[in-house]
User: Which sequence fits this backbone?
């Protein structure tokens, strides 16, 4: 074998499939890096007793919201390890916020980059794992917690432009 690399297969209407229907990673080599941002949210519904303990910072395992924030940040940086067709990109900024409200914990994550592809999956993964961290920290109190409504709220930058979830 002399190092010959075959040309990429013809594109299909499905960006993650080649002409033969095989999964592929989209080639973004030719795209110019640009500033991109995505925000996602989710909700961890908790029984009243759990909400009371969270609000009083009295959960026996420790500071639930701090653990959730750190877990979300770490998760945003691990997306290519979890999603096989995701690109390895520079995650340049991550903010995860977890707030105790009536009925549970609201989780929000905003991820920023200056790269060739967006950070929507990083924001969604940050919210997902932060929410899982809340569950992990309170499951000993009540196993009835439920993760709900993990969703993209907005994205900015890139070829497709800006998008915001309708109110």
Assistant:
């Amino acid at each position: 074998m002399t190092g010959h690399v075959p040309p990429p297969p013809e594109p299909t209407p499905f960006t993650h499939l080649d002409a033969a229907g095989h999964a592929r990673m989209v080639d973004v080599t030719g795209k110019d890096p640009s500033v991109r941002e995505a925000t996602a949210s989710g909700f961890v519904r908790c029984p009243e007793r759990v909400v009371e303990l969270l609000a009083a910072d009295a959960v026996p395992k420790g500071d639930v919201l701090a653990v959730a924030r750190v877990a979300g940040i770490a998760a945003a940086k691990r997306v290519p390890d979890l999603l096989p067709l995701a690109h390895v990109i520079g995650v340049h900024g991550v903010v995860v916020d977890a707030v105790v409200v009536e009925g549970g914990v609201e989780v929000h994550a905003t991820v920023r980059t200056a790269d060739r592809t967006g950070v929507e999956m990083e924001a969604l993964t940050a919210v997902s794992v932060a929410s899982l961290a809340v569950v992990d920290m309170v499951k000993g109190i009540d196993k009835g917690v439920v993760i709900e409504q993990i969703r993209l709220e907005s994205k900015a930058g890139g070829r497709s432009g800006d998008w915001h979830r309708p109110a």
